[in-house]
């Protein structure tokens, strides 16, 4: 009796399903990676120097305290809306030629209070705006100017 041995087929590795799965995983990784990008803003922050301009322009000083009360040229105005503040700025700027608006805002004042001053300045057609900061020596000075190419105010302002 002759016993026939059946040969068992050697196992084969079929690469086609493996490649299909890898391509699906690759597509999934590529799609999910494109949504995880962080959007960044490129900012050019203004710089200030201690130069004193040859001739000081006419100034309008607006102060904002931590409670949101305003004062114009060191005269208290209280809490005003944008329209009333714009009228006060317009009347202060009438007698001045190309005045510079200096905003002195308390460090704890709200952002809305400062934006309200900026909106009132826009309504009053005041385009030369500067923010005053306090230096390490305790004197306040103009830190940045919103109009390009203008010089900051002197460092001796209090």
CATH topology of the domain at 59-145: Nucleotidyltransferase, domain 5
* Straight-line N-to-C gap: 119 Å
Query: Mean of the pLDDT scores?
Result: 76
Please give the radius of gyration in angstroms: 33 Å
Report strand order across the widest sheet.
3-2-1-4-5-6
Number of helices: 3
Largest β-sheet summary: 6 strands, mixed
Q: Which structural class do you get from the secondary structure elements?
A: alpha/beta
Helix content: 25-40%
The dominant shape is rod-shaped
Please write the string of helix (H) and strand (E) elements: HEEEHEHEE
Q: Per CATH, which architecture of the domain at 59-145?
A: 2-Layer Sandwich
Low-confidence segments: 136-158
Name the beta content range. 15-25%
Number of strands: 6
CATH class of the domain at 59-145: Alpha Beta
Structure in words:
This protein has helices spanning 15-34, 82-93, 111-123; strands at 59-64, 70-72, 75-78, 100-105, 129-134, 140-145. The chain is of the alpha/beta class and 158 residues long. 16% of the residues are buried. A 6-stranded mixed sheet has the order 3-2-1-4-5-6, with helices on one face. The radius of gyration is 33 Å and the shape is rod-shaped.
Q: Could you give a short description of this structure?
A:
By secondary structure, this protein is an alpha/beta fold. The chain contains three helices and six strands; from the N terminus they run H-E-E-E-H-E-H-E-E.
């Amino acid at each position: 009796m002759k016993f026939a041995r059946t040969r068992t087929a050697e196992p084969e590795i079929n690469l086609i399903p493996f490649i299909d799965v890898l391509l699906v995983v690759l597509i999934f990784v590529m799609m999910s990676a494109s949504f995880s990008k962080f959007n960044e803003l490129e900012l050019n922050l203004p710089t200030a120097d201690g130069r004193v301009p040859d001739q000081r322009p006419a100034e309008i000083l607006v102060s904002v305290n931590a409670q949101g009360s305003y004062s114009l040229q060191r005269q208290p105005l209280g809490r005003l809306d944008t329209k009333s503040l714009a009228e006060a700025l317009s009347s202060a700027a009438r007698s001045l030629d190309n005045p510079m608006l200096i905003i002195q805002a308390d460090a704890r004042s709200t952002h809305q209070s400062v934006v309200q001053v900026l909106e009132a300045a826009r309504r009053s057609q005041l385009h030369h705006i500067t923010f005053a900061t306090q230096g390490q020596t305790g004197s306040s000075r103009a830190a940045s100017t919103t109009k390009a190419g203008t010089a900051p105010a002197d460092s001796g302002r209090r």
